[in-house]
Amino acid sequence: MCGRYASSSDPRDLADEFGVEDVRIGAPLPPSYNVAPTDEVYAVVERPARADRPRQRQLRTLRWGLVPSWAKDPSIGSRMINARMETVTEKPAFRKAFATRRCLVPADGYFEWYASSQVRGDKPVKQPFFVRPKDHGVLAMAGLYEIWRDRGRPDDDPAAWWWTCTIITTTAEDELGRIHDRMPLMVEPDRWDAWLDPAREAALDLLEPALPGRLEAYPVGPLVNNVRNNGPELIAPLPLEETPMEARS
After folding, report:
1. Distances (CA, A) of 186 to 9, 46, 47, 100
2. What is the largest CA-CA distance in the chain?
3. Residue 236, beta-bridge partner list
4. Phi-psi category of residue 219: left, alpha or beta, with phi > 0 → left and psi -120 to 50 → alpha
5. pLDDT tens digits, one per residue of 141-175
6. pLDDT at residue 23 above 90?
């Protein structure tokens, strides 16, 4: 799964990177090195044409944890942070969004935890790793978004409309699979247009794990385990002498 990631890019840089035509974020989000479920996050979406404008690519802030349009209670979103590629076209919570509301979720990299041979009490100690592109560029994680209507508020109340998202995961490639068996799906730049196109229905063929060798993973300290910690020190490589022996290679 993907349960934490880092996002420190300036929204203006993201707009340039993804060819965004309309930035709709309100106040910029502060850099976060410990993005957690239910946080507000940046996402690139492509809104279909309307009578007053053509189809438009937008940068928006969405709440991480998808709330399906049919949900009675938005708290369901905390359990919908990831959608499995293997079932995304079948699950009622995701299949409608997969058909027409796909998005890209930019990230510096993401965190995964490896169960080491060290034991604390009766449980193995989990060593966090940070996974990022080797060129330190932006990861474009495959996502879905939904718009949920709070029927308890009037139409002109901005809080009546919840924009939420989820990140699609798949089986991890061999190199990363030793850390965790799942990983977020990446969308390569030459496929962004097709992935975001709300008129394009068959999209599974656009998804594949990151190209072998494109990502690097290294152990980091335990600060990321606490969502209250948030700073660049969370993605600093763990000194070799503090790294579990089996996590050094």
Report:
1. 17, 17, 21, 18
2. 63
3. none
4. beta
5. 999 999 999 888 888 887 889 999 999 998 887 66
6. yes
Could you confirm whether 165 is annotated as catalytic? no
The one catalytic residue among 103, 112, 146, 165: 112
112 is an active site residue: yes
For residue 178, give both structure tokens: 């030793």
State how far the Cα of 106 lies from the Cα of 19, in Å rounded to an integer: 13
Q: What is the pLDDT of residues 70-123, one digit of tens each?
A: 999 999 999 999 999 999 999 999 999 999 999 999 999 999 998 877 777 778
- 177 pLDDT more than 90: no
**Cα 245 from Cα 237, distance rounded (Å):** 15
d(CA 6, CA 234): 9
Q: What are phi and psi of 19, to 5 degrees?
A: 65, 40
CA distances 172 to 1, 59, 166, Å, are: 10, 28, 18
Q: Please tell me which residue in 2, 17, 146, 165 is annotated as part of the active site.
A: 2
The answer to whether residues 11 and 18 touch, using CB atoms and an 8 Å cutoff, is no
In the chain, beta strands by DSSP E: 5-7, 22-24, 32-35, 40-47, 56-64, 82-84, 102-107, 109-120, 123-133, 139-149, 161-171, 182-184, 215-219
